[in-house]
């Protein structure tokens, strides 16, 4: 936790007045429905630059879809076609089944929240008035709009007293949260997010990513998110579209598929060589078979040992390691132990298991049950061979 930037989002379903549904594009979200569709879209700017080339892509209702690719590959151009900030040279972009060119841009934009890098807040309006702007334009009274804005501040994890400040009096991460609150103010079913977190430092950025995921759990928006950071794309996207120069779609797939089977050399180099490691996050560890490990309980007599022994408390929770070569010497006290590594909770993903194995001084990753009790240990080799099996089977 780093100051207010990491306050957690307290989306309170019981509050009633923060509307969590989606309005504007006709009825409740239909699972699997395609809310945004690009069909054979091409964009050539007047100077001849082809930013997007014959691209077709559909975005499912209620999902986060990420557009990722190197600078200049057409991500922003593609995204801005959704709310008609840019019109395609050919092809169609439709939202909820209607070609966006058949919609009034102002009305279309009221149903599409837009979050950009550095938040783009109005500098001379307070935080609360920034958030209240769109609802007031849509006809809400100032009082109702401000009341709703206070709830949104809470929803994005900001304390109420920040509402009176001006944007320059907030940290970068706080400004981004206000940007998200402002985009949510009209309760739009669609959110466009263009590199929203790239202007903040990596720690704050991770916090914002986590909170977007938490917020999405509550709100179920259809989010189109642009980034050039493949890690961000993989973390946030239920589906990820990798674009390459000239606005070509190189691959469109769930992150796991992208990491497992990159479509070509470009995607391979873009997702990076350590994709095997990243991919571990998507493989569950149900087939991992932890082996028994010799233990010793805190407060009990220290045994002579020629192997690593896991020290546990009265609830079998791991407290550290007793190294090989330890001589029998009185009762076991916590301060004499070698600190343990991270713990892997049973049924978690393989990345957690590998982290546990790699971070343990014994090389033995400790697996615990939901109550925190040790159930056994795994080695890094065991985790990686499971990954090989998974690779071979998919
Ligand atoms: N108004 C414009 N006129 C001419 N060319 C443009 C215009 N806007 C963008 N371009 C060019 O179109 C291409 C795609 O730009 P776009 O901003 O969509 O890419 P991007 O992937 O979002 O890049 P970045 O990650 O750097 O923001 C680039 O070559 C860019 O220089």
TrEMBL record:
Pfam families reported in the protein's UniProt record: ABC_tran
Enzyme Commission designation: 7.6.2.9
PROSITE patterns, sorted: ABC_TRANSPORTER_1, ABC_TRANSPORTER_2
Transmembrane feature ranges: none
Claim: Transport is one of the keywords in the record: yes
Keywords: ATP-binding, Nucleotide-binding, Transport
Positions of the ABC transporter domain: 36-271
Superkingdom assignment: Bacteria
GO molecular function terms listed in the Swiss-Prot or TrEMBL record: ABC-type quaternary ammonium compound transporting activity; ATP binding; ATP hydrolysis activity
The keyword ATP-binding is annotated on this UniProt entry: yes
Enzyme class per UniProt: translocase
InterPro entries associated with the record: AAA+_ATPase, ABC_transporter-like_ATP-bd, ABC_transporter-like_CS, P-loop_NTPase
SMART domains, alphabetized: AAA
Similarity comment text for this entry: Belongs to the ABC transporter superfamily.
Protein name in the entry: ABC-type quaternary amine transporter
């Amino acid at each position: 936790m780093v100051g207010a930037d990491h306050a957690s989002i307290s989306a309170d379903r019981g509050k009633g007045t923060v509307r969590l549904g989606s309005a504007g594009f006709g009825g409740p979200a239909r699972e699997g429905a395609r809310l945004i569709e690009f069909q054979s879209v091409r964009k050539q700017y007047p100077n001849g630059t082809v930013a997007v080339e014959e691209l077709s892509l559909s975005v499912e209702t209620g999902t986060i879809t990420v557009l990722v690719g190197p600078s200049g590959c057409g991500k922003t151009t593609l995204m801005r076609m959704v709310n008609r900030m840019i019109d395609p040279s050919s092809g169609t972009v439709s939202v909820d089944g209607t070609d966006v060119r058949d919609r009034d841009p102002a009305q279309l934009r009221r149903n599409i929240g837009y979050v950009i890098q550095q938040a783009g807040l109005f500098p001379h309006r307070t935080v609360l008035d920034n958030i209240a702007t769109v609802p007031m334009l849509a006809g809400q009274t100032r009082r109702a709009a401000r009341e709703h804005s206070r709830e949104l501040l809470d929803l994005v994890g900001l304390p109420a007293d920040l509402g009176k400040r001006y944007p320059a009096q907030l940290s970068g991460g706080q400004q981004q949260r206000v940007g998200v609150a402002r985009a949510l103010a009209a309760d739009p079913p669609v959110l466009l997010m263009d590199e929203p977190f790239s202007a903040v430092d990596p720690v704050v950025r991770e916090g914002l990513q986590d909170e977007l995921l938490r917020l999405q759990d509550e709100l179920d928006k259809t989010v189109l998110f642009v980034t050039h950071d493949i890690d961000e794309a993989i973390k946030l996207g239920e589906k990820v579209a990798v674009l390459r120069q000239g606005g070509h779609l190189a691959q469109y797939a769930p992150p796991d598929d992208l990491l497992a089977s990159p479509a070509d050399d470009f995607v391979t180099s873009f997702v990076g060589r350590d994709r095997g490691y990243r991919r571990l996050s998507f493989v569950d560890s149900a087939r991992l078979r932890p082996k028994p490990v010799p233990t010793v309980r805190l407060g009990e007599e220290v045994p002579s040992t020629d192997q690593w022994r896991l020290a546990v408390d009265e609830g079998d929770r791991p407290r550290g390691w007793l190294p090989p070569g330890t001589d029998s010497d009185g009762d076991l006290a916590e301060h004499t132990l070698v600190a343990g590594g991270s713990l892997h909770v049973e049924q978690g993903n393989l990345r957690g298991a590998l982290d546990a194995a790699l971070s343990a001084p014994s090389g033995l990753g400790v697996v615990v049950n939901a109550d925190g009790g040790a159930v056994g240990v795994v080695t890094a080799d065991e985790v990686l061979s499971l990954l090989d099996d998974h690779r071979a089977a998919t």
